[in-house]
Every structure is written in structure tokens, then in C-alpha cells.
Amino acid sequence: MNDAKLAPxxxxxxxxxxxxxxxxxxxRYRYRYLQGIKEAFRSIESYLGNAVHxxxxxxxxxxxxxxxxxxxxxxxxxxxGWTENLDDRVAIVRVDDSEESYLKTGREMLIxxxxxxxxxxxxxxxxxxxxLSIRLSDAVVFTGFADRVGRTEKGRLFVIxxxxxxxxxxxxxxxxxxxxxxxxxxxxxxxxxxxxxxGYHYLRHGTTRWQQVDRERAAQLLERFLDxxxxxxxxxxxxxxxxxxxxxxxxxxxxxxxxxPDRFSGGLRRAERNGRRLL
Length: 279
Ligand code: SF4
Prior knowledge:
β5 and β6 form a beta hairpin. Strands 1, 4, 5, 6, 7 and 8 form a six-stranded mixed beta sheet that branches. Strands 2-3 form a two-stranded parallel ribbon. The chain is of the alpha/beta class. The chain is flat, with a radius of gyration of 20 Å. The N and C termini lie close together (10 Å). The model is unreliable at 1-5 (pLDDT under 50). The chain folds into three domains: 17-40 and 244-273, no CATH class; 43-120, no CATH class; 124-234, Alpha-Beta Complex (Lambda Exonuclease, Chain A), CATH 3.90.320.10. It contains nine helices and eight strands. Residues 25, 27-28, 240-242, 245-246, 249, 251-252, 255, 257-258 line the site of iron/sulfur cluster. The site of iron/sulfur cluster (SF4) has 14 residues, from α2. Residues 14-256 form the PD-(D/E)XK endonuclease-like domain. This is PD-(D/E)XK nuclease family protein. InterPro entries: PDDEXK-like_dom_sf, PDDEXK_AddAB-type, Restrct_endonuc-II-like.
């Protein structure tokens, strides 16, 4: 391993993904955030999520510029981006699945979004893919990217996070409880508002769930995140926590504790072919 090429995340910068990673598997957290090792593959589910997010960003940026994109142009853009960015780091973890099935799912999600949500959406876009950052203590900075910040027709500030996952989330901290509400806490401070809405839109289901974040809740959310970040910063042991997510973990070819069933071994095979780690 060439340690000189490794790039650990700055010790004081904490994102929601970072604390979630520690919660899911401390060893993966150590590899990724403390040692700065890059995962040897990315799952096609993650690739699909990025490809769809790129198109959603394009849709709203076009409208923000006064243009009304057509559904066919959206699908052309999705197909072109899919082909252009697909490389040998993308792995189909479920060995019985095919690239075409994910491409089809992406098209279906976008068509549904376009027809049921985008075409009727009267909200104003304030920012797309906005980087948010707030210092929580001398030792902790919270950072994240909000998919879209906007204002409803009635002028209410909102943050929305687009999800391409198969299942809708629940209210727990590492599902819907923290991420978008934390982003809302940041933007209401940035915009000097008393409250903001935090939303999750599930593209496979065509559903949106909203939470209200006022100043009091914002303070609670940021305080809770600071606790989680302080726990992460103080962690001294990083045990492996093997489970179903090992199949999607880009360290599974180097991790001595990895548990990867044959039917979900597409990522492991790709990592072995790619030499375990791509820098
Ligand atoms: S392969 Fe499993 S146990 Fe090993 S680091 Fe990844 S998630 Fe953790």
C-alpha cells in the first residue's frame, strides 16, 4: 500500500455519511475516513443514483434559466450520461441482475418524476447541489450537499433529498431522522428564517415526505450531530461489523471479516479483478 497516496478526510470535517458509516461498520469507517483508502468498486445502485441525480439537477437548472425541458430531452440526457460515465469501477453486486435492468429502472423513475412531480412543480429553485457547512465546535465542522433548496409557491423555504432506494425510509436517525433535517437546519440559519421544510422524495415510489424544522428543532439536530461527531472523533477501536452490506462494501476484497454470499458477489469479483483498490 502506498500510504503517500492516501488522503484521509480532515479529522474535524464530519458529514452525515461519515457518521452513518461508523454506525454501520467501524472498520469500513477506518479504511475510508481515517486511512483514506478508496473503495475498489462502486455499486451500480450508487451509479444509478448519481446518474438520476445529475438529470434532476439538469431539469431544475434548465427551468431556473427560463427553459422548459421536454421529457424526451431528459431521457436522451440520461442515456448519454449513463454510457459516458460507466466504467470498470461500477459493479453489479446482485449477480442475477443486468445493467439493462438498472438503466430501465432509471428511465422509469425519471418518467414518473417528470410527469407526476416536475410538470406540476410550481416551486422556485434557490440552489442545486448546494454545499452546506456549519462549525459546531472548535473541533467539529458539519458539511453536506443538499440536492435542492427551494421555496414553495407560498414562499416557504425547503430542502429536498432525492432517493433512488428500493425502500422508503423511516424516522430513525440514520434513515430520515437526521440528514435532510440537518440540511434544513443549515439553510434556515443561512437564510435567516424561523423554519424550513426538510423533504425526502422517493423516486421509485413517487412519494414525498416532509418534516418541519424550526429554530428549536434545528438547535437540537445540530447538537445531536455534534454528539455523534464527538463520539466518532473519540473512537479508538474499529471492529468489523460484517453483514449484508459487506457485498456492497468496496473493501470486501481486503477485509478479513467480509461476508459475501455468492449471489451478491459481483462487487467482490470486480474488486479482485481491479486489484482490490483503485486510487
Ligand atoms: S467488508 Fe463488511 S466487515 Fe469488512 S469493512 Fe466492509 S462492511 Fe465492514
